[in-house]
Amino acid sequence: MGKSIPDHGDITPVLNSLEGAQERLAEAVAEQLDAVDRLLVVGGGHEATYGSHCGLRRHVGDQVVGVINIDAHFDLRDPYATGGNSGTAFSQIHADTPTGQWQYLVLGLAAESNSDALFDRASQIGAEWVSDVALQTGLSATVQDQIDQFVAASEVVHLSIDLDVLPRDQAPGVSAPAERGVPMPVVEALIDHIVDAARHCPGGLRLVDIVELNPTFDSKQMTARSAAVLASQVLGA
């Protein structure tokens, strides 16, 4: 029989306040992490990740959080120039977090979708990344070792999965559909490897986001189906 997964409800912005919705999400995540081993947040734009991470931080205190973002983009834009949005979550996390209490790894990065300034910003904060080109045929030993070393240096793991990392035919209902993307079987292999590696760090994999699903643009519910496959994998592991 399948596993029963409780649904803890929705967070809806009030008066179009993104910051208010992120704060309510943070409160909900912090509360639920007191009761569950692993929590899944489904969005919505990638701005949800900032709210969910704030909740995780409240729960784990000053532990080192390793954030792994399976994504075509760094999402390190300047929130002070544009305001918080789907491209600023990890800059906001960096700004909030004392030095040494978080680290950042992006898997599936599309070089053509990130500016030179974003690559410079990623280097400045000590981020690591693996390109989508390097993940076309599977997980090399080099990539596996990089993930293992990253997780080993963390006390808790936060996994964020942006559906725009998938090829357009598997995830059309996102804000920036990918022409190349990372094939679904490779994304599944990444998740399996991350879940397994996180078993060896003290706090384990506590929080997962699956984001950037927009039903309005989701042809034949393909993106929703892809998200469901990945959610099942994360929660069943």
UniProtKB/TrEMBL annotation:
Q: Where does Mn(2+) bind?
A: H46, D71, H73, D75, D162, D164
Kindly state a single biological-process term from the GO annotations of this entry. Answer: putrescine biosynthetic process from arginine, via agmatine
Q: Is Translocase given among the entry's keywords?
A: no
Q: Which GO terms describe its molecular function?
A: agmatinase activity; metal ion binding
Q: Which UniProt keywords apply?
A: Histidine metabolism, Hydrolase, Manganese, Metal-binding
Q: Which family does it belong to?
A: Belongs to the arginase family.
Q: What is this protein called?
A: Formimidoylglutamase
Q: Which organism is it from?
A: Spiribacter salinus M19-40
